[in-house]
Amino acid sequence: MAKAKEAKTKKKSATYYNYIGGEWVxxxxxxxxxxxxxxxxxxxxxxxxxxxxxxxxxxxxxxxSAATRWRRTPAPxxxxxxxxxxxxxxxxxxxxxxxxxxxMGKVMKEAGGDVQEAIDCTYYTAGEGRRLHxxxxxxxxxxxxxxxxxxxxxxxxLITPFNFPMAIPSWKLIPALVCGNTVVIKSGExxxxxxxxxxxxxxxxxxxKGVVNVVNGFGDxxxxxxxHKDVRLISFxxxxxxxxxxxxxxxxxNKIVSLEMGGKNAIIVMDDADVxxxxxGSLWGAFGTSGQRCTASSRLVVHKKVYKKFCEKLVERVxxxxxxxxxxxxxxxxxxxxxxxxxxxxxxxEIGKNEDKATLACGGNRLTxxxxxxxxxxxPTVFTDVDRNHRVGQEEIFGPVTSxxxxxxxxxxxxxxxxxxxxxxxxxxxxxxxxxxxAMQELYTGICYINSATIxxxxxxxxxxxxxxxxxxxxxxxxxxxxxxEWKAIYVDYSGKLQKAQIDEVEI
Length: 508
Ligand code: UN1
Hints:
Helix content: 25-40%
CATH architecture of the largest domain: 3-Layer(aba) Sandwich
Largest sheet: 7 strands, mixed
Bound molecules: 2-aminohexanedioic acid
CATH topology of the largest domain: Aldehyde Dehydrogenase, Chain A, domain 1
CATH class of the largest domain: Alpha Beta
Number of domains: 2
Structural class: alpha/beta
CATH superfamily of the largest domain: Aldehyde Dehydrogenase, Chain A, domain 1
Shape: globular
């Protein structure tokens, strides 16, 4: 009887594998880890192989063996498979969305947006298979032809975070593939299922064995990928601290490294702004994905003339946000990803209250009662009267916390926005076209929005940031091709004789 009851209450969990050389395999050590639902940690989504250096070595070997054949497959043919992948993702969108919410916590609408972003990226980037434009240019000698083509870089290591479990892996994977590279993905340990769903779809679409490989696991597996001598490129999204270590390691053997890291994004609200629209944008920008976006609006820089009105309206709206399990369609703010992140966020709330002595306008607590008891829930939190130098106004929190900072002039606002170590996204609410254009010119970020929040980048525009956010690369758009391919300049001399550039006189 007791047993039957146990069987009834025990939630189902499944076993998943690494994908290496086209085979679904256990880890070399036989170790596993559990992927749990952050809204209810008694809900185990599945167990996944805990991989180590040996698994990474096998995956890199597989990627290396598949490289020549894939590189020589004409790009339009590679792209045809990717278009099929887009169809498969579209067909499975609902299931992938649900599974993502279960493993990551973000509400279903947003998880659907995440899968959609992967679909958009797949279709858009697959289109590059029939472009991958190079260029021709005149040569300086007669009877000589000059052109430039893209060539793949080789085996790429992709290290992905938890906050966009399918979109971010797709941003890296699809351009890598269309450019003719083979890859090993080390997925975020909190959200391995969404990467498995993406890669299973690659298998179904017909991507040849060894072209895409996945190792599940933690930082040691990522480090083995970064240190592997046959990996030519590392593309990483995650914290600025980890990114810096990766860049240093990559420098040792001159790997190409593309980094997307932290943010401390700000919305400026001018005195002429539509305040209601700015409040809606701030709400979405700060608390969408529980603030766990690199692009989250974690600073709201508000003109003193509208400051009081803005804060009142904002706090009133924030207090009404429905926190809960993302699987419930009524939920607006889901849990945060794990215990460690939750503690970090709560730690920042303490800093805001005690060290910064900002005004805690609403929120500030972990929710632990009733339906919240087994999850990592934090009340949406607003600090007001934040000084530009306060720690909550300077450091990335990556949770449902935002800081309102007052200002008097546009110059001052721009200075506040730029005066942090990051530079991903910025926004301004104003009805004045001159102010909007001046802000567009002066805000030193990789992304800038007018009359909209700091989140919501589209896949056909470059994504990335300045300063501590990145190392000069951009994902998405066609700009991503510059990460995953290298230029080859080609000169064809059809004069039939030796011609010396820079030296021979050309008869005119
Ligand atoms: C991220 O936060 O790392 O612009 C990615 C956005 C999303 C992507 C965010 N399309 O908010």
